[in-house]
Amino acid sequence: xxxxxxxxxxxxxxxxxxxxxxxxxxxxxxxxxxxxxxxxxxxxxxxxxxxxxxxxxxxxxxxxxxxxxxxxxxxxxxxxxxxxxxxxxxxxxxxxxxxxxxxxxxxxxxxxxxxxxxxxxxxxxxxxxxxxxxxxxxxxxxxxxxxxxxxxxxxxxxxxxxxxxxxxxxxxxxxxxxxxxxxxxxxxxxxxxxxxxxxxxxxxxxxxxxxxxxxxxxxxxxxxxxxxxxxxxx
Length: 234
Ligand SMILES: O=P(O)(O)O[C@H]1O[C@H](CO)[C@@H](O)[C@H]1O
Ligand SMILES: O=c1cc[nH]c(=O)[nH]1
Hints:
Radius of gyration: 16 Å
Mean pLDDT: 97
Bound molecules: 1-O-phosphono-alpha-D-ribofuranose, uracil
């Protein structure tokens, strides 16, 4: 057990999927895992372990924002020796050709700041995905026929953004979407020699202003879960 995770050491699998929303973790575990059981309820940040195609998998909520994800990813890596961490998140679309419900595989992520900022100081470290996971996720997405984009995303510290000028520059430089956790996940994976990827579903759009309701964000993003599972065990 750790400060934020109530599971015993063997209760967490070497592969963990991490949605921000703990109820998405519950839905994904109930929908895609066999023999699943709840392994964490501390602070309501639900986690479940079960099997997918015979492979042990944990699905653990990360909460919203990099400070929250950083707590869970640090403990999963350092206390439970997790090797593969795949974020399954929602994001805002930032390009006209990226549609609602499309999947984005985050090859790199730009950010103003992360909980790792203090380490890098003046260095602009470039957090990137594990290539093997990225390539396998792309294959899985193609096989499913899901509209999928691979490229850079923006990991923001705020949902309610006050920097339209910055968004304009990111759109101009091809950033596909915005979310709030992947950069710190990639930083931690690089630091501890683990594999990480963010598989995202576009839930709203910064240009068209379309937006899906909360229930869809919690319960309808099955394609990204299956893509993440296929990539983890490719
Ligand atoms: O749907 P999740 O995984 O929580 O991800 C996105 O949604 C939240 C904001 O609504 C942030 O956590 C952002 O990264
Ligand atoms: O962080 C996020 C997640 C979804 N949609 C956004 O606009 N931002």
